[in-house]
Amino acid sequence: MSDLLSVRGLERGFYGVSVLQGVDLTIKAGSFTGLIGPNGAGKSTLFNVVSGLYQPDAGEIRLGSEAIGGLAPDRLVARGLVRTFQLARGFPKLSVFQHLMLYGPRQQGEGLVAAMLGGKAARHREAELAERALGIARRLRLDHVIDNPVTALSGGQKKLVEIGRALMADPKLILLDEPMAGVNPSLTEEIAGHLIALNREGITICLIEHDMGLIRRLCDPIIVMAEGRTLVEGSFETVAADTRVQEAYLGRRH
Ligand SMILES: Nc1ncnc2c1ncn2[C@@H]1O[C@H](COP(=O)(O)OP(=O)(O)OP(=O)(O)O)[C@@H](O)[C@H]1O
């Protein structure tokens, strides 16, 4: 498998406190990579920097052969790199459909206003995006709530909207930040099934998750972070047997 994302020497701090202290990692194209580590290890911050939400202080990020460090999120989304958030973001008053439509990729100057003003190409594109949004809603079994405001959805359905939002961008790589946290067991299984299917269709996934049962079942390889660095990488058995990993988790508990 070729390298899809590679991160070298990545640093980021806040108010003088160093959070990412030289992260090195590689995500292979087509993999379902797990990212684990004790609370505060810097996993979400890594996602925030890689997805363009925060600027790096130092280091290099490549998507394929292109250096992408410091690019704004919308430019990364256009290159097929998207992330989801632990808590679904967005516009609570919008319906599921409107929400998905917001995140469809558009050319500069396109969009709902252009469509309303009568641009033929823009109207055509909006129709395509609407088809895409409907298809994604059907796939994620959100079609029966597609006209409901996002606020009226259950916590688990909001997580599905986050995944749907990512799919609207036709992603190559999805960074998933705890997409099953706080979700009931049957919906967790449903989400796991969607993720496995998306990965089989060729989408590379990097998953932050604290549930080791899910990590073991879904991910290979697994990258362990602790104190702003990557510690170990390998199969679940390899990382679980590594004393450095055990110490990193125990160190936080006591
Ligand atoms: N915007 C920010 N401003 C200040 N400190 C921040 C900011 N973002 C993250 N941090 C700090 O960086 C550290 C790492 O946080 P981060 O959320 O990346 O860890 P994590 O590994 O994702 O943890 P968890 O598993 O608990 O979600 C924490 O001490 C956190 O307080």
From TrEMBL:
Q: Which CDD domains match?
A: ABC_Mj1267_LivG_branched
Question: TM spans, by residue?
Answer: none
Domain ABC transporter, chain residue ranges per copy: 5-252
- Gene3D superfamilies referenced in this protein's UniProt entry, alphabetically: P-loop containing nucleotide triphosphate hydrolases
Which terms are listed as keywords in the entry?
Answer: ATP-binding, Nucleotide-binding, Transport
UniProt cross-references to Pfam families, sorted A to Z: ABC_tran (PF00005)
**Molecular-function annotations in GO:** ATP binding; ATP hydrolysis activity
Tell me the leader sequence span. Answer: none
An example Gene Ontology CC term for this record: plasma membrane
**Top-level taxonomic group:** Bacteria
The family line of this record is: Belongs to the ABC transporter superfamily.
| Annotated PANTHER family | CONSERVED COMPONENT OF ABC TRANSPORTER FOR NATURAL AMINO ACIDS, CONSERVED COMPONENT OF ABC TRANSPORTER FOR NATURAL AMINO ACIDS-RELATED
List the protein's name: ABC transporter ATP-binding protein
